[in-house]
Amino acid sequence: MCGSPARTEAGRDPARGEDEGVSTSRDVTVPVRDAELPGVLVLPAAPRGVVLFAHGSGSGRFSPRNRQVADAFHRAGFGTLLMDLLTEAEEVVDARTRHLRFDVGLLAGRLTAAADWLGDATDAAGLPLATFGASTGAAAALITAADRSERVGVVICRGGRPDLAGSALERVRAPTLLVVGGADEPVVRLNAEAAGRLACEHRLVVVPGATHLFPEPGALGAVIDASVDWLDRWLPRTSS
Fold first, then answer.
1. Measured between alpha carbons, how far is 4 from 28 in angstroms, rounded to an integer?
2. Less crowded by CB within 10 Å, the N or C end of the chain?
3. Assigned CATH for 6-234
4. Using one digit for the tens of pLDDT, what is the confidence trace for 106-142?
5. Is there a contact between 67 and 82 (Cβ–Cβ < 8 Å)?
């Protein structure tokens, strides 16, 4: 872990009657097999668990949508790790070829390594873990859950491509939430087909009128509400 921790006020959510107090935000370096990847680990004062984000389609740890979701998780008492799944050099190549963002094996391998690293990280070790995947990152989130079934307690996919997880779908044991925009019709169909292959507890939520990135008023808020409710319901209070 590198960088100095920054302390920020998490704020209070009157609807939940919670006061999370002070959160700690730390720049980290996550070691994976063939790279070291930058990330931001945020933990509330008394974290209920930590959510590991998998970005997709050329996005990264500074994605405004995922940061908005992460902020809501902090207010609900959950920590987050937002990280880049590609190195700077790979981002340059991907901007030209657009192929690495669809290399699900690469993305999933790195996300799984990050899940293992979180289990050893001093200030996140032992916390219940969820994976949150967007776009192609949804497949990585599901594969990591399948490969670390004893570690990952919840999966959430936002506007994702769970179909790209392939045979890992049948191996997922963590309760899985799939959230898609109602106007994103091809992705709705792919998510419905993927849901039919899941043997775990799962739910498909379609946000009416929302497109792929949920830019419509209230659309991302609907994603956040469904996600926090899913974490509240299914993420275990202590790790196994």
1. 9
2. C
3. 3.40.50.1820
4. 999 999 999 999 988 778 999 999 999 999 999 999 9
5. yes
